[in-house]
From TrEMBL:
Coiled coil: none
Name of the protein in its database record: DDE superfamily endonuclease
InterPro entries according to UniProt: RNaseH_sf (IPR036397), Tc1-like_DDE_dom (IPR038717)
Alphabetically ordered keywords of this record: Endonuclease, Hydrolase, Nuclease
Gene Ontology MF annotations: endonuclease activity; nucleic acid binding
Residue span, Tc1-like transposase DDE domain: 5-66
Keyword Hydrolase assigned: yes
Membrane-spanning residues: none
Amino acid sequence: MAPNAHAVLLLDQAGWHLSDRLEVPPNITLVPLPPKCPELNPVENTWQFLRDNWLSNRVFHCYDDIVDHCCRAWNRLVEQPWTIMSIGLRDWAHRF
């Protein structure tokens, strides 16, 4: 990380994200999203895209089969940076 850099981290309000025991470095600011608003979190759309395109309607034979399918899906998505960008963009965020 660059010297004197500061990061802002958006997160949902899952209990482990907001735990009092979480030690947050002083150069990171946590910004919790409103509760029950997955549409504000682009990662939720990424997971939905993976499920819709490569992970749904499958029967997994074992744990390793699940991990293999998830890794293949993730690697396919990573090979498509423009898809990732389009999933994460929010038109309303650019209107201000």
